[in-house]
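Tokens for Peptidoglycan-binding protein. Go.
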Amino acid sequence: MREPVVPLSFSARGTLTHNIQTNLSRLNFTIPQNEMNEQVFGVGIRDALLQLQTQHQLSPTGIFDDDIKIVIERAIADLTISTQKYLPYGKTVV
């Protein structure tokens, strides 16, 4: 059973936000460097989520929730098969 995600939105900070940024970057979304440095949920994440939500017929909220988490996980899994490593949410890279 999947662990539910507490919805994250604009101005959230921390490891989960950083992992979202990293995974969106792997999907070729551009996250501004200052947002990456500060591990903040800013316009970069919001805009990427809005695009993904629209592409996958989800309500375009710009909020990171369970539905968009699944979309991102599946997209990363497709990449992982051939080229990349998935960074699970809530985990820290050592």
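Helices lie at 15-26, 33-38, 43-55, 66-82.
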